[in-house]
Amino acid sequence: MHLQAHIHSKETFGALDGPGIRYVLFLQGCPLKCLYCHNRDLWEQDGAVLHMTPDEVAEDVLKYKNFIRSGGVTLSGGEPLMQSEFCTELMKKLKIHGIKTAVDTSGIMPLEVSKPALDECDLVLLDIKSIDEDMAIKLTGASNKNALSTLDYLESIAKPVWIRHVVVPGYTLDYDMLERTAQYLQKFRCIQRTELLPFHKLGEYKWEFYPNSYLLKDTQPPLPDEMEKAREIFTSRGIVCK
User: Fold this and answer.
1) Strands across the sheet with 5-14, in order?
2) More confident site: 129 or 209
């Protein structure tokens, strides 16, 4: 039986998920239950729109090779490393054609599952939900231990990393916790930049189609000056912050 992935959708002119213009593949399925998730429709793996093999995806990517030559391909989700074997095989095929690859991951998968894909990609976009384990569990339903172990592993193999961290009022918009996060991250030489992403409500409407209640309906995005103060905490420690 051919290796197939559960796929939700693709974006062929992505500019937010790694350097340059990128082909972004959204894989279906995620073990986390983030309160602020804007892709609630990607949680259940059996909700996939498409089922494709690495060869089929690679063939589609090559149609856009001229457009993504300064960027590459980003595997996102959901949690793409739930389908680590597929990701690994696809990235190997893309490398033959000189196409750079990135994986956008929460780091939730244990290293025995994720290592092959982490080894194969050119860049990891690692979403640190919270440096505080209790807050990570409150936000996502899962510990942050695998994510931090993933970062340790990426440091050990000198894999380029972009850190992502969502700033949510009432949760991660906590300046003491942001100080702890910056202090923790500043020791990692593999981190090229850190993106502090303000919580937004663009995907809130998707929650209406699911029985789980959306707990952040009354939560508003952080104010510009709050985001600026958060970024200053990181830049003051010499961390490149966007």
Assistant:
1) 50-52, 5-14, 22-27, 72-76, 101-105, 123-127, 161-167, 191-198
2) 129
Q: Which residues contact 152 (CB under 8 A, 6 or more apart)?
A: none
Measured distance CA(187)–CA(211) in Å, rounded: 42
Tokens 């380029």, located at residue? 160
Q: How confident is the model at residue 34 (pLDDT cuts 50, 70, 90)?
A: very high
Q: What is the identity of the amino acid at 50?
A: L
Beta-sheet strands, E only, within the chain: 5-14, 22-27, 50-52, 72-76, 101-105, 123-127, 161-167, 191-198
User: Which one-letter DSSP state was computed for residue 14?
Assistant: E
Q: pLDDT at residue 103 above 70?
A: yes
| Phi and psi torsions of 56, nearest 5° | -65, -40
How many Cβ atoms sit within 10 Å of the Cβ of residue 187? 8
